[in-house]
């Protein structure tokens, strides 16, 4: 794990999507954070030690998970049909029953629901980060668009695993990866953290709210977190039967035109019981190691 010194920063953004606003000043206490997302090898050690069964593997009829399998279609039709719920997709079989983890041991584990991530964290003596902790660590004291500067790929050098090409029908894989990448494939930020941008979305412990709370004038919220599960459901109306938590960081499926969410302030809602092939996690620890 990497020690992240506490401090104050501007959380959120007023320049992109409405759910990222308003930009506001908060502070977080110091904490330790995993240097990279939890890998398949690390999650396998947890399962071997505990016998844990993930949500996607549960039930007489397996719950399964969502897999991105774009068809040879274009435009909105392709986007609607790109995601499929496969009963036999899980962390061991990331693309369905005919896939496995050979060669993917150092890639982020995927197809983990929030409860799965939480179970791993408890076993490891750690926690899932708050949204504020995650964003503070991702920014690494930078207010640029990206932790490394103003450009996504400065000088043509890929700094994170994102989508290149026409989404969702064409992925040129100019960065070398069609799907997930090894957790050390790209340079770390200045705090020594890998994959804070791209590769896989990461769970946080905060429940979803459509916007950040605007603090009272001349106040700085310390260690903020959103704990209202009911409001996270109400934000989605009749379809909001399951609480949503905040995902951070973007993934290898984010592209500049349709989903430029590979930025520290970017956020996304996800039902806690809805794993997918582009969702993983990392842990934090607030107690001394």
Helical content band: 10-25%
What is the ordering of alpha helices and beta strands? EEEEHEHEHHEEHEEEE
Strand order of the largest sheet: 10-9-7-11
What coarse outline follows from CA principal-axis ratios? globular
- End-to-end span in angstroms? 9 Å
Give me the number of helical elements.
5
Q: How much strand?
A: 15-25%
Q: What is the structural class?
A: alpha+beta
Radius of gyration: 18 Å
The low-confidence parts are none
Describe the secondary structure blueprint for this structure.
Blueprint: E1 2-4, E2 7-11, E3 24-28, E4 31-33, H1 40-50, E5 65-68, H2 75-81, E6 83-86, H3 114-123, H4 131-139, E7 201-207, E8 221-222, H5 229-234, E9 244-248, E10 267-271, E11 279-280, E12 284-285
Parallel strand pairs: 3-8, 7-11
Antiparallel strand pairs: 1-4, 2-3, 4-12, 5-6, 7-9, 9-10
Concise synopsis of the structure shown:
The chain has 289 residues and is of the alpha+beta class. Helix content is 15%, strand content 16%.
């Amino acid at each position: 794990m990497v020690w992240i010194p506490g401090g104050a920063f501007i959380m959120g953004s007023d320049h992109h999507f409405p759910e990222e606003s308003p930009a506001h000043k908060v502070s977080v206490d110091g904490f330790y954070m995993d240097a990279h997302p939890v890998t398949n090898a690390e999650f396998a050690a947890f399962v071997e030690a505990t016998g844990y069964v993930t949500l996607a593997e549960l039930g007489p009829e397996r719950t399964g998970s969502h897999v991105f399998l774009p068809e040879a279609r274009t435009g909105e039709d392709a986007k609607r049909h790109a995601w499929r719920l496969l009963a036999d997709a899980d962390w061991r079989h990331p693309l369905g029953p005919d896939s496995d983890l050979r060669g993917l041991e150092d890639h982020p584990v995927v197809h983990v629901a929030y409860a799965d991530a939480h179970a791993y964290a408890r076993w490891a003596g750690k926690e899932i980060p708050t949204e504020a902790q995650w964003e503070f660590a991702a920014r690494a004291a930078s207010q640029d668009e990206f932790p490394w500067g103003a450009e996504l790929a400065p000088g043509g050098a890929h700094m994170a695993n994102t989508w290149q090409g026409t989404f969702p029908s064409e992925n040129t894989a100019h960065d070398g990866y069609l799907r997930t990448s090894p957790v050390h494939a790209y340079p770390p930020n200045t705090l020594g953290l890998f994959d804070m941008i791209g590769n896989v979305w990461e769970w946080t412990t905060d429940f979803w709210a459509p916007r950040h709370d605007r603090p009272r004038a001349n106040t700085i919220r310390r260690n903020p977190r959103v704990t209202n599960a009911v409001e996270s459901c109400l934000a989605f109306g009749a379809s909001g039967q399951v609480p949503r938590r905040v995902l951070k960081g973007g993934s290898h499926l984010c592209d500049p035109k349709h989903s430029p969410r590979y930025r520290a302030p970017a956020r996304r809602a996800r039902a806690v019981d809805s794993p997918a092939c582009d969702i993983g996690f990392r842990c934090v620890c607030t107690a001394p190691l």
